[in-house]
Design goal:
Blueprint (H helix, E strand, L loop, with lengths): L1 E4 L2 E4 L3 H5 L43 H13 L10 H12 L8 H31 L1
Antiparallel strand pairs: 1-2
Helix pairs in contact: 2-3
Protein name: MIA40 protein
GO molecular function: protein-disulfide reductase activity
Main location: mitochondrion
């Protein structure tokens, strides 16, 4: 039995599963493995979609839209890099909005709201200080 929460996959293993010998093969640092410790961009310039640094973005329900937008940006030759990729990024954003549990966007909004409320709180104080200074001169 397995289920996914966020980026983590939780797998329940039975006693029998543990007693069965594993069929997984461990290969000691294969120098020909193109995904081994390569980072985001492979030596040939291609994007390494298996890079852990992408946090699974390339494989979720919006993986194709993410790959399309990211590829477009990566290979963009425009003076303002990625300026020719607006449609792809819009498609990715629209897809992600359909899956708020997988792609939470509250953080940005909460920060903006906190900043704007702090700005609003600070403004009256500054105004009243300025008025007092004007009045006392």
């Amino acid at each position: 039995v397995s289920y996914t929460t966020g980026k983590d996959k939780i797998i329940f293993v039975t006693k029998e599963d543990h007693e069965t010998p594993s069929s997984a093969e461990l290969v000691a640092d294969d120098p020909d493995d193109p995904y081994e410790e390569q980072g985001l961009i492979l030596p040939n310039g291609d994007i390494n979609w298996n890079c852990p640094c992408l946090g699974g973005m390339a494989s979720g329900p919006c993986g194709e839209q993410f790959k399309s937008a990211f590829s477009c940006f990566h290979y963009s030759t425009e003076e303002i890099k990625g300026s020719d990729c607006v449609d792809q990024f819009r498609a990715m954003q629209e897809c992600m909005q359909k899956y708020p549990d997988l792609y939470p966007q509250e953080d940005e909004n909460e920060e903006k709201e906190e900043k704007s409320s702090k700005d609003l709180e600070a403004t009256p104080v500054e105004d009243s200080v300025a008025k007092e200074e004007k009045g006392s001169s």
